[in-house]
Design goal:
The complex is a heterodimer. By secondary structure, chain A is mainly α. Chain A has eleven helices and no strands. The longest helix of chain A has 37 residues. Chain B is mainly α. Chain B is 75% helix and 0% strand. Chain B is globular and about 80 Å long. The N and C termini of chain B lie close together (8 Å). Classes of the chains: A mainly alpha, B mainly alpha. The interface between A and B is large, with 47 and 52 residues.
């Protein structure tokens, strides 16, 4: 029922403001890529890990985006590659959200020493370059998809924490919260029934923007070899595989996967930017 | 009586807990996370005695709290241990060999990002509501979502492979390096009055710093646009104009006021700049800290990896301190 609530709120707000084009474009991009990932075996013209043509063929009618150094179809690899990036980024976002939001909410609501300690910890983590933090974690844990999820979710916990804590601080001093307290509502009830629903617009914005950023972090980690290994297709990794062929002018091996990284990241960024224009919550980043 | 001195002193003191927390996070990540970092990095197939020896060398056979004390003590005394591969040089020396390259790249990338951002942002603000304004707004979002290795490789392909105008990798043509004074090639070649080296260094710098500069410029574009529009509608600007102050002077004052929040953004952007530099360095075979970090992870040189991460942490803390002090100098309201 909560999901339905969000959906109706989104769509009732969309027609009124100029952010709607951004949100709709973003949604169109994200939904298309998600469908592509889910139905990859149906959509992809070839097997992504088998050689299905001559090597290093430029885009042609049989291979719309050309073939790579092993004769594999670049388009099929891109279509299947969307699975890894989406899986990693969405699971990481869910994990960071389910840690960052409760921490930020309770920390902001109760205040005190624990709040100060947590805020300092989160601020320090936030100040540290995200990709380098993710690299450090991935290096210790070893390259794998699961470890990449762990690394990326750690990076974005402070983003959720800071934003939710800040919003909680301003909401908890509002009159309707005072009223609930005067009527004897418990802290737990106030947080859940009065504050949390008001955090949802912020959360939608932070989620979209941090996923947009996480896509670039995932692609970066993948490019550096911390997520998948051959022959698994993943966009960032494709760029690393295509890099040695760049000086010879084989542009298609890197151009299309990188373009997809940008388009998907742009999709989420547009949703986030559009939503923030619609709701205009305070933003820090 | 609030004073600038008191503010700076407080801010400097606040660096201590920040650095302490950052170093603790790094320690925690590199050691406590599941079991044995050496094993994770070296792999399972190493014989037991080699593993023991490596652990002993890295001090990892001691109890965790002693490791932690050793670690902090090492950092305080500038001793980051010895590299575990090749010449077994002190890690701090290795870092100092690579750091100038990163510093040079980030300085140029930073300057370009601010220049591009200020230019595009002020164009958008002065043409508010026009098509140009909308395209600058789209630019600010798109620039941010560019994937650095991809954008870098496109530039390499166009300027390096297709036009053959610029080198596609490295920091300098072998044999052209100026005499080392600071390690920053452009600065060194100016100091040694060596124009050939300078041109060579600049031609290598152009594409990587442009990559970083464009990707980071989007945030400045948007911030400056919004600030400038705010400032331009304020009373003092209207008053200037009403009194017939020359437009150039009005713009100067508007820019000065719109610029203060940009300094804060510079501090926030710095972390993104360093992270972006890791990818830029890898893309352009730039021999900096990022390349060093990735290379040592690949070679499983645990002490170097730890040293590099610690160095990044200290560098980030230092820069945020400098940014806060600059901010206080610019904005007289910030005092303790």
């Amino acid at each position: 029922m909560e999901v339905k609530n969000i959906a109706t709120t989104i769509f009732s707000f969309i027609p009124k403001t100029e952010g709607r084009y951004m949100v709709l474009t973003g949604l169109a991009i994200v939904i298309t890529v998600c469908l592509m990932a889910v139905f990859a075996p149906l959509v992809a013209p070839y097997d992504p890990i088998k050689s299905t043509g001559k090597i290093l063929q430029p885009p042609n009618s049989a291979h719309l985006m050309g073939t790579d150094n092993l004769g594999r179809d670049v388009l099929s690899r891109i279509i299947f590659g969307s699975r890894v990036v989406l899986a990693v980024v969405i699971s990481a976002a869910i994990i960071s959200m389910s840690i960052g939001v409760p921490l930020g909410l309770t920390s902001g609501y109760f205040g005190g020493k624990l709040d100060r300690a947590l805020s300092m910890l989160m601020d320090s983590m936030y100040a540290f370059p995200g990709l380098i933090l993710a690299i450090a974690i991935a290096a210790v844990l070893g390259p794998s998809v699961v470890n990449a999820v762990v690394a990326i979710s750690v990076v974005y916990i402070p983003t959720y924490f800071r934003m939710i804590r800040g919003q909680t601080l301003s909401i908890k001093s509002l009159l309707f919260v005072e009223a609930a307290r005067a009527m004897g509502a418990s802290d737990w009830r106030i947080m859940r029934k009065y504050i949390l629903p008001n955090l949802i617009p912020t959360l939608v914005v932070v989620f979209s923007l941090s996923v947009a950023d996480a896509i670039l972090t995932e692609a970066g980690l993948s490019f550096l070899g911390f997520i998948v290994s051959a022959p698994t297709p993943d966009w960032g990794f494709e760029l690393a595989s295509g890099r040695p062929y760049l000086p010879a002018g084989y542009w298609w091996m890197i151009t299309f996967p990188g373009l997809m990284v940008m388009i998907l990241s742009l999709g989420f960024a547009l949703i986030g930017e559009g939503m923030s224009e619609i709701y205009a919550p305070r933003r820090e980043k | 009586m609030p004073s600038l001195k008191a503010y700076i002193a407080t801010r400097v003191l606040l660096v201590i807990p920040t650095v302490f927390i950052l170093l603790t996070i790094v320690f925690f990540i590199l050691r406590i996370i599941p079991g044995n970092p050496i094993m994770a990095m070296v792999g399972q197939k190493v014989p037991e005695e080699v593993l023991q020896k490596l652990m002993h060398e890295a001090g990892l056979d001691k109890p965790a709290y002693i490791q932690y004390i050793d670690y902090l003590h090492g950092i305080l005394t500038g001793n980051l241990g010895k590299s575990m591969i090749w010449g077994r040089r002190p890690v701090i020396d290795e870092i100092m060999d690579h750091f100038p390259a990163t510093l040079e790249l980030t300085i140029f990338g930073f300057v370009l990002s601010v220049l591009i951002g200020v230019l595009t942002g002020s164009i958008a603000a002065f043409r508010k509501g026009s098509k140009l304004d909308s395209s600058m707004r789209i630019y600010s979002i798109v620039a941010y979502t560019l994937f650095i290795p991809w954008f870098g490789m496109l530039l390499q392909m166009f300027f390096g492979v297709y036009l053959r105008a610029l080198p596609i990798g490295g920091r300098i043509t072998p044999g052209f390096a100026p005499k080392t004074i600071t390690g920053l090639y452009v600065l060194d070649s100016i100091l040694t009055l060596n124009p050939t080296s300078m041109l060579d260094a600049l031609s290598h710098l152009l594409l990587p710093s442009l990559t970083l500069g464009i990707v980071l410029s989007g945030a400045y574009t948007r911030l400056l646009r919004n600030n400038l529009i705010d400032v331009l509608s304020q009373d003092f600007i209207v008053a200037y104009r009403a009194r017939g102050v020359r437009e150039r002077k009005v713009i100067f004052h508007a820019m000065k006021n719109a610029f203060i929040p940009v300094v804060t953004l510079m501090g926030l952007q710095f972390a993104i700049l360093l992270a972006g530099a890791v990818l830029t360095e890898t893309t352009f075979s730039w021999p900096g800290m990022g390349t060093f970090l990735i290379e040592r992870i690949v070679y499983r040189d645990y002490t170097s990896v730890q040293g590099a991460i610690v160095f990044y942490a200290l560098f980030v803390a230092l820069i945020s301190l400098i940014v806060d002090i600059i901010y206080a100098l610019l904005d007289p309201r910030i005092r303790y």
